[in-house]
Structure formats: C-alpha cells, structure tokens
Amino acid sequence: MQQAVESLVRLLESYRGRDKVIRTVCYGSQLVGGVLSRKAEADVSSHQLGKSLLLFSAQLSHCRTVLRLFDDLSMLAYSHGYGFGTEEEDKVVRWISILNNVADQLYYPCEHIAWAADAELIKLKSDKWWLFSTVLWGTSLLLGILRSLRVLLLLKKKLKRCERDGTGSSRSRLRRQMQGELLSVLSSMADLSNAVHWMPPGFLWAGRFPSWLVGLMGTTSSVIGLIQMNAGSNDQSESA
C-alpha cells in the first residue's frame, strides 16, 4: 500500500505525470457522469451526481487547457532536438515524425488563442480557433498512428531476422517495443474518435457521441498513457 502511494506521489510530482492523472480523472468522471446522468426520472440522486461529475470533468479539462499555455517552449525544444530526424533509420518514419512535430507545434498557439477569446482577453470569436486546434490534434493523432504502424512493420522484419539468428535478448526487447507501438495505436485511435466527434456537425460521426462514450474513449487512452509511462520508468530503472 505504501509503495503504491509513493509511486502515485512521484507521478504527481512531475508535470507530465500530473497531467496524465488529471486527464484520467477528467475522462473517468465524464464516463461515470455520463452514465449516471442518463438515469433522469428513474433516480434523481444518481442524475444529480452525474451532472456534478460532468461539471467536475469540465473544470479539469479547463485546468489542462490553462496548463498547456506553458507547453510551447518544451514542444519547440523537442522539435528542435529532433530536427529533420537524421538519426532515423527509415525515411518514412522520419518524415511522418517531422509532420507530426509541425502539427503539434501549431496546435498550441491555436488553442491559446481560442482560450484567450473565450476568456475575453482578446476580441475574437473562438469557434474557428477551436476548430483549427481540433483539426491539428486529429492530424497529429492520425500521423502518430501511421508512424506506429510503420514502426511495427519495421520491428516485425527485425524480429524475423533475430529469430533466424537465434538472439533471444533482442527478441524480447523487440516484442516489448511492438507492444508499446500497439498500445500507442489503440490510444491514438481512441483519441481520434473523440477528435472527430468534436468536429463540426456533418463530418463523419461529429457530435454523435454521448458524454459517456467520449469519457470511455478518453479514459481508455489515458489509462494506456499511464501504462506506457510506468513501463518507460521501469525500463529506465532496469537500464540504470
């Protein structure tokens, strides 16, 4: 029990870890709140609790939006460090990653402008800026899925070579990498389904998700993110 609490404290002490926890609680609250709020006349107390959870989820979402005001520089540092991806072995992975970084970099100022317009800090209509940010987020997710699928294909080829050569340690490492990429695909697909939902009506299934389904997709993605963060921490501990 104490070890679990210590792990949670360490997670909350880091910015990325805290963001993932807030994200998980945000979407989890929306999932439960969406389910409970459907019980309107049948159970008034459950319906009221559901509404409260949805409001709580909205406040956590707003909290994450405000915190992202300070993410531009870290994203810029990451993009600068990656550059044109000259260290990548595969050209397809390199160019997908570059485009992904561009989409991510443009996402933040668009969201900041939309937030500032809603907060009446600037005299602009926020609708189109929220649309731009959603399109950029969806583009980033789609590129991330394509990148992971390409990496999976390359890892599969490497795994076949290792099986022919009989190198057991390399096989286990490659399988872990493949599992990580599969989780990334599932996470991005869940988020992409929500991104489409938040597009203007008439685009695929835009606006058709009930609150509980948005919460389910977001919770799935968030839990996968926590699993990946934990796996990354364990790998660093083993290498150290």
From TrEMBL:
Domain of life assignment: Eukaryota
Chain segments annotated as transmembrane: 129-155
The biological processes this protein is annotated with in GO are: peroxisome fission
Q: Please tell me whether the keyword GTP-binding is annotated for this protein.
A: no
- Main localization, broad class: membrane
User: Keywords in UniProt for this one?
Assistant: Membrane, Peroxisome, Transmembrane, Transmembrane helix
Per the UniProt record, one Pfam family is PEX11
Where in or outside the cell?
Peroxisome membrane
In its UniProt entry, what is this protein called?
Answer: Peroxisomal membrane protein 11C
Protein's organism: Scomber scombrus (Atlantic mackerel)
